[in-house]
């Protein structure tokens, strides 16, 4: 699925604030994420990483050799590989991000940390390997978050970039994706305050 400037602008609005309950497509893909500590704080960290990336998708010149990283949280830049912070830069990342990096490698069977620029380039509107758009996050328990994405009804789609963000934001475990009727998201959305 190709992303368009209009779809990226709508995605950025959803990253910043919860969408209306009646705005959802018929189905969404669900990732169930276990986190240590406060689920709402986790959602904010995840949103803080995705917002500048989606914004770049709307505004950046992806023909350039590198994309601006000034709005990317420092902890996220430090936890990846090749972040330009020199050797040992990942040690400056907070514990949740370092633990998430290890959990990502375990989850993916030894998957390497993402280079920050490679990760950001996944948000190029012409890049077709990102098979999802952010929809919402709901708190499903004191240490469980449901992340909802629009995968255009597909049950199998490119989401390693999303998993990297989810784990490094502090996920201990990620299950999914599973395709769910949008009514499941809507019921969760309506039962809680906006995180």
What does this structure look like?
The protein has 195 residues and is α+β, with helices and mostly antiparallel strands. It has one domain (5-190). Helices cover 39% and strands 17% of the residues. It is built from seven helices and four strands, in the order αβααααββαβα. Strands 2-3-1-4 form a four-stranded antiparallel β-sheet. Helix 4 (95-107) runs antiparallel to helix 6 (160-168). The two termini are 28 Å apart.
- Please give the number of β-strands: 4
Instruction: Please report which band the strand proportion falls in: under 5%, 5-15%, 15-25%, 25-35%, 35-45% or over 45%.
Output: 15-25%
Largest sheet features: 4 strands, antiparallel
Percent range of helical residues: 25-40%
What are the low-pLDDT stretches, counting only 5+ consecutive residues below 50? 83-87
Number of domain units: 1
What distance separates the N and C termini?
A: 28 Å
Spatial ordering of strands, largest sheet? 2-3-1-4
* Overall geometry: globular
Q: What is the overall pLDDT average?
A: 91
* SSE pattern: HEHHHHEEHEH
Helix tally equals: 7
Calculate Rg over CA atoms: 16 Å
What structural category characterises the helix and strand content? Answer: alpha+beta
């Amino acid at each position: 699925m190709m992303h368009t400037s209009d779809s990226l602008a709508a995605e950025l609005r959803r990253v910043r604030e919860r969408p209306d309950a009646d705005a959802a497509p018929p189905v969404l893909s669900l990732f169930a994420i276990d986190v240590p500590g406060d689920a709402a704080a986790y959602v904010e960290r995840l949103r803080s990483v995705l917002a500048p990336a989606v914004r770049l998708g709307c505004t950046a010149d992806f023909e350039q050799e590198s994309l601006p990283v000034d709005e990317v949280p420092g902890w996220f830049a430090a936890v990846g590989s090749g972040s330009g912070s020199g050797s040992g830069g990942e040690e400056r990342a907070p514990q949740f991000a370092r633990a998430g990096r290890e959990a990502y490698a375990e989850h993916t069977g030894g998957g390497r940390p993402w280079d920050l620029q490679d990760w950001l380039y996944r948000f190029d509107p012409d890049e077709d390997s990102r098979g999802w758009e952010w929809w919402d996050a709901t708190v499903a328990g004191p240490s469980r978050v449901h992340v909802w994405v629009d995968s255009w009804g597909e049950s199998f789609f490119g989401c390693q970039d999303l998993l990297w963000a989810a784990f490094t934001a502090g996920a201990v475990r990620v299950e999914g994706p599973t395709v769910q009727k949008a009514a499941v998201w809507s019921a969760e959305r309506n039962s809680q305050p906006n995180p």
